[in-house]
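Assess this today:

___
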Amino acid sequence: MSNKTYKELQESFVSSHSGTSVAEVALASSISAVSLLLRDVLVLSRFSPTKWVGFLIDFTCLILPSQLTETVLAENITVLLVLMLLISMMLAIITLESTVKEYFSWSGFSSFLNSDTQDRKQFLTNFRAFINILTALSILAVDFTVFPRRFAKAETYGTGLMDAGVGLFIFSNAIVSPEARNLQRVHGPFKNIWKSFLSCVPLLILGVIRLIAIKGTDYQEHVTEYGVHWNFFFTLAAVKILSSMVYSALSTQMSGVFGIILIVGYEYLLSGCGLRDYIVEGHDGKGGRQSGLLDANREGIYSSLGYLSLYFLGIQLGQYIFKKRTKITDYCWLLLVFAVVTVLGYAMMELAVMSVDKVSRRFANLSFVLWMVGQAMMMITSYLLIEIMVDYIKHINFLREKKTDHEKHAARRNDKNKPCLLKAINYNGLFFFLLSNLLTGIINFSVHTLYATPMQACALITVYMAVSSSVTMTLYYKKVQLKFW
């Protein structure tokens, strides 16, 4: 069989899919939160692992469950979820070494709610790191038959697990952006735009490198994803530059309003002005791409407007998240707000699907943006819930052991400063993403992934994740941060 024929098989293998249900995407991604709970209660035990034993625990608890969810256990996600929850509960009880009465006592819970806490955002670190992990797993696993086709990106309409990846990546960047943290510097409108452009030069270079690599090596590509020349790096750069142009004239405090106006206007162009038909059919009405760069890359260029609106909404939520909070009860209220936003996001998505248009990552339309808000907030809510639960377990142990306030804070600081794979990935997020893409390309050039057995596929994916994770962890241990902008 010629390489060209195999390339065509690969392209058809990742094309023409319709996705799965929103509920299954939420269920599959919730494995990461339970993985976090399992890891956290495990490391609360009495032993102090070495660096690389700690890494092995992190890899086993944080990465393997998500890998199994996307491969051999894709049909048994609920069983895996329940099993991990039961193990976590057993470990928590063992760790507590307290009676049931102590565990559920109102006095202990009340003192916990009113206890002081550092204004930390560990749940955001976990969210951003897991987005990278799930993305890294998917971009390789999708090339194997063990990866369910319903999890792959939908052709035009649908909610595949991989459809969520792009939107979540944009959203995770937005909630920790300088605008969300009110750290942006004012140098004048034109200077701000110029500085934003300079900061995006590395992304543009990476986009060009990826384009040359794909065209030069005849690597398989899915043209209807972004277009002939466009790719995700160009989308990231476009969103950043366009947002800086808006903020050069308007206040960041109005980000939510910008996002709503933009996505409503963009949806009007899609549904009411024929833009949707043009994106699908092209200038010639037959799906061709011969009428210039805009026509060749219409998906990537126009969907940037939808991603920009999502970016604005993420910044508005980030501004609320980064408000100062000093007590556990403040974070409990924050958890409630997150839960409400999650429900609203999903509910408004269903309303948009019924009254406007179905979810489409290809267009990044209104339904897609609302889905991403609901999905992202569901994940963030679960990570914050896990963080509060683990803090409560620590608090019960502190009370039981009658530690002094000084010892409490010292114990918290020591626990916070322990090396963690999630912190390492977040420390070098773009490098981890680039390394994963590079390794994916190497594996695809070296192995006919379509013919790999499920066992071979899982072994390759495990080695691939182990290499990318261990390299990233090594950089973190050595405090080497590879900045690309």
About this structure: Residues 71 and 148 are 7 Å apart (CA to CA). Residues 3-477 form one domain. Confidence is low (pLDDT under 50) at residues 403-414.
